[in-house]
Amino acid sequence: MARKAGSATQWRIPLMKLRTLAPKVRPMRAKVEVKKQTDDFYRSAEWIALRKQVRAERGRICEGCGKTYEDDGSPVDLILDHIIERRDGGADFDPRNVQQLCTRAGGNGRGRIGGCHNRKTASEKQRRLQGR
Predict the structure, then answer these.
(1) In total, how many domains does the chain have?
(2) What angle do CA 87, 41, 64 make, to 5 degrees?
(3) Is 22 contained in some domain?
(4) How far apart are the two ends of the chain, measured CA to CA in Å?
C-alpha cells in the first residue's frame, strides 16, 4: 500500500509477500578449487634419481595392492611415498623408507582395488590429528 510522499515509510510490503521470497533465495555454494603446491624436495635431482632407482629395482607395481595396470589398460600411475613421513622423522633418500603406491582405484580387472596412496595419506593425517 502506498503512503503519502515524505512520510517515514513510503511503501508498505505485506508480510505475506516477504515470506514468499524465502524459498526462492538460497545461499550460493561457491566451489573453490585449491591447487596443492608440490614441495620443492620432490623436484630435486636426488629425489628423481631415487624414484628412477626404485622403479628399476622393484618394477612398475603398487606395493600396497599389487596393481600393475589401470582399468583402461595403461600402466599403473605410481607415487613414490615415504613409509615414515619426512615430518615424522623418516629418512629423505633411504630406499628402505619409500614405497610405490598407486593413485587411482580400479585396475588389474579386480574391481575396486587401488587408491593406496590416498588411503595411506588419509590414515596418516587422521593419526596425526588424533595425536598418536
Answers:
(1) 1
(2) 65
(3) no
(4) 66
Range of the domain at 73: 59-132
Q: Are 120 and 64 in contact, with CB atoms under 8 Å apart? A: yes
In eight-state DSSP terms, residue 37 is P
Query: What residues contact residue 67 under an 8 Å CB cut-off, 6+ apart?
Result: 61, 76, 102, 107, 108, 113, 114, 116
Asked whether residue 96 is domain-assigned, the answer is yes
The x, y and z cell numbers of residue 114, run together, are 587401488
Residue 100 host element (H or E): strand 98-102
Give the least confident one: 3-7, 55-59, 94-98, 115-119: 3-7
Radius of gyration of the chain (CA): 28
Among the listed residues 35, 25, 29, 40, the one whose alpha carbon sits nearest the alpha carbon of residue 86: 40
What's the pLDDT tens digit per position in 75-96?
888 999 999 999 889 999 999 9
